[in-house]
TrEMBL record:
Source organism phylogeny: Bacteria, Pseudomonadati, Pseudomonadota, Alphaproteobacteria, Hyphomicrobiales
UniProt cross-references to InterPro entries, sorted A to Z: CheY-like_superfamily, Sig_transdc_resp-reg_C-effctor, Sig_transdc_resp-reg_receiver, Tscrpt_reg_LuxR_C, WH-like_DNA-bd_sf
Species whose genome carries this gene: Methylobacterium persicinum
Keyword Signal annotated: no
Protein name listed in UniProt: Two-component system response regulator FixJ
Domain HTH luxR-type: 135-200
Length: 202
């Protein structure tokens, strides 16, 4: 049976309190840490569970925390919380071995689903999503322009930035984005990025 322990690492006291309340109410055992250093200092006694860490923290950030965990050979599943516009960091985190990421603000159900999946995998790495082969096939149906927008989105580009690069209007970028999301059947940017990383596109 998968562990029900979640280690929350976030420098924002309100966020820690909110997450601890939600997860405890959902039946999880929760340990909170103000800094990545606090968590790493207690790593020897941490043998199970999932790490839920903010990607941007003063001092030691979430990326460095992830690198140190993996360098120490610790396979605890790690879910990163990212702010808006942190897509390139999320891609890098998944390539470094993070199990998933959540873009703030996220809803309770998305968080619980993501943690449940990560705990079930128990450090065996990002999921081999059953929809992955279908995703790769569907990417092959994109037009050249839709593929350009996909690549730019996964690289973290905003609609305005993509519009400047491709010399089209931001509104046109949004139209292409809607089309490629429909064609790939990605529910949101998070899922699009996850699939792109797993497929080796990002």
């Amino acid at each position: 049976m998968p562990s029900r322990l979640v280690h929350v690492v976030d420098d924002d006291p309100a966020m820690r309190e909110s997450l601890a309340f939600l997860l405890t109410t959902a039946g999880y055992e929760v340990r909170v840490y103000e800094t990545a250093i606090d968590f790493l200092d207690r790593l020897d006694e941490t043998v199970s569970g999932c790490v839920l860490a903010d990607i941007r923290m003063p001092g030691l950030d979430g990326m460095t925390l992830l690198r140190r965990l993996r360098a120490a050979g610790r396979k605890l599943p790690v879910v990163m919380m990212t702010g808006h516009g942190d897509v390139p960091l999320a891609v890098e985190a998944m390539k470094l071995g993070a199990d998933d990421f959540l873009e703030k603000p996220f809803d309770d159900e998305s968080l619980l689903h993501t943690l449940r999946s990560a705990l079930e995998r128990d450090g065996s790495g990002p999921p081999r999503d059953p929809g992955l082969q279908d995703f790769v096939r569907r990417v092959g149906t994109l037009t050249e322009r839709e593929r350009q927008v996909l690549d730019a989105l996964v690289a973290g580009g905003t609609s305005k930035e993509i519009a400047r690069t491709l010399d089209i209007s931001p509104r046109t970028v949004e139209i292409y984005r809607a089309k490629l999301m429909a064609k790939t059947r990605a529910c949101n940017l998070q899922e699009l990025v996850r699939w792109a990383v797993l497929a080796g596109i990002a």
